[in-house]
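Regression test case RT-17, inverse folding.

Input:
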């Protein structure tokens, strides 16, 4: 098979971008285009644009090999016909995005974070619905039939993909994909679902290694995310990447520890028991604050009631303990005036 375009790595600006595909398609006007797709996905934006390019061109056939996931399945829906190797696997899932919510938050900041996450969820829900409509149109099914598959997010065999309608034909070419434990660990590093079970557990030695496209993809990713370290010979390496900090005395007191372990990225890892201890302490402080607020509210009400009620008549004045004759003379204001008018 002669492929006009081969998409075998990341879909997006630093891989197979919409602009790259557009430049390739520009020289194939009015010609049938065969596209080989073997990608774990990438940018939804680029995938949607490439899908539309395939639709606009018209005569495009996508051939799916290896593991075809996420954004790679989106662009494939733009093809006039989609073929899939009997040994390939197909994955659609709900959209996701990076959420950075690390640090100390007061009540207002927590509420702001909650509001931001709610808004983020609504945006993701919108995109999920758009993608569900896109897949439903390809499969000739209802959106309600597609949403559960998106939510489940599992690998589909070629037979399952054909049954649902994601592809139009299963082709015989291709090779079986098997991963050893090391490759499975790397695969899971990309937060992809667990690998589907293989029907034949006794594979030949030649089929035990991952395909070259996947090795290249993983190696490029790891190379771009691993810090350069100087080579040293006959010198012991210091593998410690954490340091103890004793600055946070309140936290240390709650957790009953000497200090917290902070890694090179400034992150702290807590056990479930430690998280529970912090949560319980916060809950107690919230309860104490609520109790104090109730007490203050009660005192305010008492004060308001006192201001609204009439004062009681005073029958006794402290400090006026004197002889009865003196007190009698001062019984009324008139008598007091009479006593002092001669002086005035």
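Golden output:
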């Amino acid at each position: 098979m002669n492929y006009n375009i081969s998409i075998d790595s990341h879909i997006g600006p630093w891989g197979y971008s919409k602009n790259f595909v557009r430049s390739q398609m520009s020289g194939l006007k009015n010609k049938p285009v065969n596209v080989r797709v073997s990608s774990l996905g990438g940018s939804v934006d680029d995938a949607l644009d490439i899908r539309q390019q395939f639709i606009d061109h018209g005569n495009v056939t996508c051939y799916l090999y290896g593991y075809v996931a996420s954004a790679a399945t989106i662009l494939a829906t733009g093809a006039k016909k989609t073929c899939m190797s009997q040994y390939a696997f197909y994955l659609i899932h709900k959209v996701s995005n990076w959420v950075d919510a690390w640090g100390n938050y007061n009540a207002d900041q927590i509420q702001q974070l909650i509001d931001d996450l709610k808004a983020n969820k609504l945006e993701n829900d919108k995109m999920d619905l758009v993608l569900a409509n896109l897949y439903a149109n390809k499969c000739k099914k209802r959106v309600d039939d597609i949403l559960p598959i998106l939510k489940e997010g599992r690998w589909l065999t070629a037979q399952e993909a054909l049954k649902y309608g994601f592809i139009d034909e299963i082709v015989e070419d291709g090779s079986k994909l098997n991963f050893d434990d090391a490759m499975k660990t790397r695969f899971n590093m990309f937060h992809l679902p667990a690998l589907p079970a293989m029907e034949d557990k006794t594979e030949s030695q030649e089929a035990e290694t991952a395909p070259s496209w996947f090795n290249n993809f993983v190696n490029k990713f790891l190379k771009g995310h691993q810090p350069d370290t100087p080579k040293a010979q006959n010198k012991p390496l210091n593998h410690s990447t954490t340091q103890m900090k004793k600055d946070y005395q309140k936290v240390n007191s709650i957790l009953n520890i000497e200090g917290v372990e902070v890694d090179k990225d400034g992150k702290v890892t807590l056990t479930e028991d430690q998280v529970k201890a912090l949560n319980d302490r916060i809950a107690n402080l919230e309860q104490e604050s609520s109790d104090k607020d109730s007490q203050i509210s009660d005192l305010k009400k008492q004060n308001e009631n006192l201001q609204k009620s009439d004062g009681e008549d005073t029958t006794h004045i402290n400090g006026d303990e004197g002889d009865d004759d003196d007190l009698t003379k001062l019984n009324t204001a008139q008598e007091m005036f009479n006593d002092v008018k001669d002086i005035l």
